[in-house]
Amino acid sequence: MNYLINLIFTILIFYSNSLIANDNEIIFEINNKIYSALDLEYRVNYLEGVNGIKYSSNLERELKNDFFSSVIFYEYVKNNNRLNAILKKESKSIFEKIKNNFNLFFNLLLFITYS
Looking at the predicted structure, is the pLDDT value of residue 16 above 70? Predict the structure, then answer.
């Protein structure tokens, strides 16, 4: 009976480990950087948040293609000096706009609170 319990326990451990390992399989590799199913899931969550819609599982191939294309484009821009400078400039500009909007919102909130 003790052997049976140990056998069942061992099988459950190996089975659960294989289920967890399959959740984060490698999708592709670019420039020695590995992109996994978890990265794709983050991308899908981002797209759902930005677009305000829920993507169905029927679009898995299109979402993988979108993810692959965005990574390829980012690597291209990062390795191109002129485009990388533009990327840094635009990123800084966008960050400053967000920061200014947040400061404006925070100051407005303080004004309303103490008025």
Answer: no
